[in-house]
Amino acid sequence: MNSKKTVRDIEVAGQRVLVRVDFNVPIEDGVVMDDTRIRAALPTIRFLADHNARVILCSHLGRPKDAPEPQFSLRPVCSVLSRLLGREVTFADGDLSTDVLAAVQGMGDGEVMLLENLRFNPGEKRKDPEFTRKLAALADIYVNDAFGTAHRDHASTVGVAELLPAVSGFLLAREVEMLTDTLGSPEKPFVAILGGSKVSDKIAIIDKLLETCDRLLIGGGMAFTFIAAKGNGVGNSLVEREWIDAARQMLEKALQTGCELMLPIDLVVAPEISEDATTFIVGREEIPDGLMGLDIGPATSAKFQAEIERAKTIFWNGPMGVFELASFESGTKELAKAVARNNRAVSVIGGGDSVAALKKFGYEDKVTFISTGGGASMKLVEGAKLPGLEALDAK
Q1: Residues belonging to the active site
Q2: What is the CA radius of gyration of the chain?
Q3: 390 lies in a domain?
Q4: How far apart are the C-alpha atoms of 308 and 161, rounded to whole Å?
Q5: Is residue 391 part of a domain?
Q6: Three-state helix/strand/coil letters over 173-230
Q7: What angle do CA 28, 30, 36 make, to 5 degrees?
Q8: Cβ-based neighbours of 249, under 8 Å, separated by 6 or more
Q9: Class of residue 272 by CB neighbours under 10 A (exposed 0-12, middle 13-18, buried 19+)
Q10: Strand, coil or helix: what is 330?
Q11: Are 42 and 89 in contact (CB under 8 A)?
């Protein structure tokens, strides 16, 4: 990230600064239910406003069908942002080239404005040249602080950066530092924890981590594709049959690199995913027909915890089971506790359900860093280039 300019590298006083933020937050009945992503953007917004920039914020929210939909309006975010900033944030909707442009031209130094949901216009996702030019015409400088969308080649993440001086905000810079510098040259032992449903979603990151980590702990639904690759039956557990060969190749690569790829040795199984389902604890090679694995078992949990306790660097993405239900939350909960308890390690949480789990169990303040971008986090750890990052100006 040191090769890209940040807001500290440019003069912003009196300049109109278009900031791409990630305000894709949950809203129910017009109420913001989780303001984590809004808070994450505050340092960049405050820096720009305090340095007399005219700050124009833009974001997407949800998946509207290329037209205004009230439930996806960013208006509720505006009031929350005003409260958190301690200053008024104006809300601007309407046509970019007339209504919004006029509002921007009337801004004073240090003022902050939030635009309506970018995805109300089909030109955003398509990186339409006309829509991109309208966005760029609002500003003198572009700042990307939306790490969660940096892997998207959209108008507001790449298009505008190609037309204006373009730099990184503090959040984006911090995300890249933690996910590339820290994990790229980790203090050993380096333990990675991967869970979630599908191997297909994680195969590239598994391939990369096998080259850098000492232990790779695998749980969740994805574990059963690996268990099947070892020739074991999995009952009714989730398996991606078309990915068994790839899983087998990853097992072989682990032997070659010296990274110990650790699978569950016991599991919590049940006939169905429900809170009142009858559960059993069985060995990895003893999953009965008709039952499915829905959490790691206590022996696996203890083994994984021991590895986490010894680690100096920890990367975690994906739960160990269906943690949303109490019957299947223990594995994820105990691992979250172990990660939080190891205060000697640098712990990086890769977004998505892992963050939801930390919050559910009250450990979100006990880890070193929580990424705000699920898909972008995975792409960066894989070593892929992010279009939104590549488009920024080099130092």
Answers
A1: 37, 198, 352, 375
A2: 23
A3: no
A4: 41
A5: no
A6: HHHHHHHHHHHHCCCCCEEEEECCCCCCCCHHHHHHHCCCCCEEEECCCCHHHHHHHC
A7: 65
A8: none
A9: exposed
A10: helix
A11: no
pLDDT at 2: 59
Q: Identify whether 189 is preceded by a cis peptide bond (ω within 30 of 0).
A: yes
Strands 280-283 and 54-58: unpaired
Cα distance between residue 27 and residue 77, in whole Å:
9
Q: What is the largest CA-CA distance in the chain?
A: 70
Alpha-carbon gap, residue 142 to 51, rounded angstroms: 15
Q: Are residues 209 and 115 in the same domain?
A: no
Domain membership flag for residue 388: no
> pLDDT over 90 for what percent of the chain?
87
Q: Residue 143 pairs with which residues in a beta bridge?
A: 19, 167
Q: Whose CA is closest to 180, among 149, 208, 139?
A: 208
Closest listed residue to residue 81, CA positions, set 89, 73, 91: 89
Beta strands 54-58 and 31-32 are: unpaired
Q: Do 148 and 203 share a domain, yes or no?
A: no
User: Would you say residue 351 has pLDDT above 80?
Assistant: no
Q: Which domain holds residue 106?
A: 7-171
Count CB atoms within 10 A of the CB of residue 273: 13
Q: Hey, what are 351's tokens?
A: 């977004």
| CATH number (domain holding residue 277) | 3.40.50.1260
CA distance 178 to 349: 10
> Final residue of a domain: which of 144, 171, 198?
171
pLDDT at residue 1 tops 90: no
Overall residue count recorded for the chain in this entry: 395
How remote is the C-alpha of 377 from its chain's centroid?
A: 5
pLDDT for residue 304 is more than 60? yes
Q: What is the CB neighbour count within 10 angstroms for residue 212? A: 19
Domain count, the chain: 2
In sequence order, what are the residues at sequence separation of 6 or more whose Cβ sits closer than 8 angstroms to the Cβ of residue 120? Answer: 64, 66, 67, 68, 69, 72
pLDDT 10s digits, 165-196: 999 999 999 999 999 888 888 999 999 999 99
Do residues 224 and 322 both lie within one domain? yes
- Other Cβ atoms closer than 10 A to 355: 21
